Amino acid sequence: MELLHLVLAAIAGIVIIVLLITQVKLHPLLSLMVGSAGMAIFAGVAYDKSWDSFTAGLGATVANVGLLIVLGSMIGTLLVASGGADRIVDTIIAKTTSRSLPWAMALIAFCVGIPLFFEVGVVILIPVVIYTARRLHQPLMIIAIPALAGLSTLHAFVPPHPGPLAAISSVHANLGLTLGLGLLVAVPTVIVAGPLFAKLAARWVPVLAPEETENEQQRTDNDNKPSFAVSLFIILLPVILMMMSSIIDIAGAAGSVIGHFLVFVGSPLTALFITTVVAMLLLGTARGVKRDELNKIVGGSLAPIASILLIVGAGGGFKQTLVDSGIADVIAHGITESAISPLFAGWLVAVLIRLATGSATVATVTAAGIMAPLVQTMDLSSPMVSLLVLAIGAGSVFFSHVNDAGFWLIKEYFHLSVGQTIKTWSMMETVLSVFGLAVVMLLSLAF
């Protein structure tokens, strides 16, 4: 009877969140707060204690993830403001033939998507996509789908994006290992969901680029942009530092003085802090940007991420409520007793929440919270825990539809109908999600 009661409490909490987000149109932060409190009360927690687990979980999540998201936003903003992101785009397109252009767009999105949040990447790349398709008289989807696939794949699988970071924090995965495996999953996934699927999408929706308007974004002056090498170095620096730390740790060399120092340098917070400082020097000071202007650019990166940061924190609060009430243990025990793979279970939970709420971030942080006790219950190895994070990330992007802000962003930018957006963007997200899970499952055979 107690088991049924806890399961019903979990369902009630999730239903409350879904209804508040989709029907009442309440902000996800407030929806997660109400859903967490309702779930705690249904589970038998006194009403005056219903916020305790939520606030503890929110604080712990922001402490673990918050600064990483902030630093990642600073790096991305510096790349955009300096013209570094434009430099990468311009350099790759200049060396590309029309036949290889879809692959080039996927590569551009992959590079730009590592440090930039999805929405920022979309704003940067969509004008490039439209301009390129118009100039070369190519079907719009041949160029657009690879770019969107690159951005969305990085958003789902690779830290320092908020979803993967939150999931890593919830299940206590190794960040460097997750980053390495995430890139391994991302490459074939981008290829399949991007250039290959683009051929089908262009047949289903054979539209051309929208006509040029007077208000199209002007490009940064080429003379003052950082070089391609500098821009790419800034993007890859945190990846190199974090992966180097994981390699040293796995090799058992962390005990030496040098090894210990390199592990410290490659820790997520240190790696992103170093990259932020280097980005300020190379993308700001070295280009003659004055200190006040540089501080203004860095400070301006904070406001756009406030909502993301609080949603991620609220997801951590919801997770902690699940754990403290005993509900997560019940779910984990049920999965352990069944024959279902924990990777598939994590993907499926994320898919259901994604379809219901439309938010990839909410789907990731909620699914990670539900799956967290499973890590201890099943005594999963470190690589398997990282693969669980990636499986959840794959599920979080499944079939974007009308309750997802990204759906409307793509529809309006490309002047598509709802049906055309479903045939292109929504189907691309589904291919990405399913194929990403398949790659994760194949990698799990090695562990």
**Class computed from helices, strands and strand pairing:** mainly alpha
Give the helices and strands as they follow along the chain: HHHHHHHHHHHHHHHHHHHH
Give the fraction of residues assigned to helices: over 70%
Tell me the number of strands. Answer: 0
- Annotation field: number of helices: 20
Biggest pleated sheet: none
What does this structure look like?
By secondary structure, the protein is mainly alpha-helical. It contains 20 helices and no strands. It has helices at residues 2-22, 28-42, 52-82, 84-94, 101-113, 118-136, 140-157, 162-171, 175-204, 228-250, 257-265, 268-283, 291-300, 306-324, 327-337, 342-357, 360-377, 382-395, 405-414, 418-444. Helix 1 (2-22) packs antiparallel against helix 2 (28-42). The longest helix is centred in the N-terminal third of the chain and has 31 residues, at 52-82. It is globular and about 65 Å long. Mean pLDDT is 85; it is low at 213-220.
Keywords:
20 helices; globular; mainly alpha; 447 residues; 76% helix; single chain
List the helices and strands and how they pair.
Elements (H helix, E strand, L loop, with lengths): L1 H21 L5 H15 L9 H31 L1 H11 L6 H13 L4 H19 L3 H18 L4 H10 L3 H30 L23 H23 L6 H9 L2 H16 L7 H10 L5 H19 L2 H11 L4 H16 L2 H18 L4 H14 L9 H10 L3 H27 L3
Helix pairs in contact: 1-2, 1-15, 2-14, 3-8, 3-12, 3-13, 3-14, 4-5, 4-10, 5-6, 5-7, 5-9, 6-7, 7-9, 7-18, 7-20, 8-14, 8-17, 8-18, 9-10, 9-18, 9-20, 10-11, 10-12, 14-17, 15-17, 16-17, 16-18, 17-18, 18-20
